[in-house]
Amino acid sequence: MSDLELVQDFVNSADLEEQRDDLQDARGLVRWLAVHRLAGAHARARETDAADARAVREALRELLRANNGIAVDEASAAATLDAAARRAGLTVCFQAGAIQLVPRERGVHGALGRVLAAAAEAMADGSWQRLKACRADECRWAFVDRARNHSRQWCDMRICGNREKARVFRERHA
Fold first, then answer.
1. How far apart are CA 90 and CA 21, in angstroms?
2. pLDDT digit string (tens) for 86-108?
């Protein structure tokens, strides 16, 4: 799984339209981490860990909204991510002739550190700007913008894009 895909999957662990949150509680967090091979099936998490994971997810979502041209509080999102990186003990390591961020902590904090490391790697390699959150406030689904000119704004033009076009049309003709 690529760095972008991991971050995308993590952000999409909540479907705002369907009101589904895979990280709603500690059990859901452990399940999500196990499915994504970031922690073992027998990992332990507390409810505070699930709350931390949700905060990290929403901070990442805010940065993805910024990638889509939406004004957000990037400083607040960065502060949340910085705190999570400290809890994970993210450390720069030189492995096989490359620089990598590796969490010193294990368990949930280490697993979240791996998500943050994936985001940092994407930022460093330039692919981060392609990862966006849908402009529709009720959606905000993360997607990779594969358009040649990087101008995609909606997770799905047939759903969110169409709704927005219809809304603009109604406002114009009201």
1. 26
2. 999 999 999 888 889 999 999 99
Contact 59, 140 (CB under 8 A): no
Is the separation of the CB atoms in 107 and 42 below 8 Å?
no
Per-residue pLDDT tens for 138-174? 899 999 999 888 888 888 777 786 677 766 667 777 7
CB atoms within 10 A of CB 60: 24
Q: What is the count of structural domains for the chain? A: 1
Residue reference for tokens 């809890």: 87
Q: Which of 53, 38, 118, 124 is nearest to 83 (CA)?
A: 53
Q: Which residue, 101, 63, 92, 99, is CA-closest to 80?
A: 63
Q: What are phi and psi of 90, to 5 degrees?
A: -60, 130
- The beta strand positions in the chain, using DSSP E, are 14-15, 20-21, 90-95, 98-103, 131-133, 142-144
Domain residue limits at 51: 3-172
Alpha-carbon torsion, ordered 24, 37, 11, 161, to 10 deg:
-120
- Give the CATH number, domain containing residue 108: 1.10.3300.10
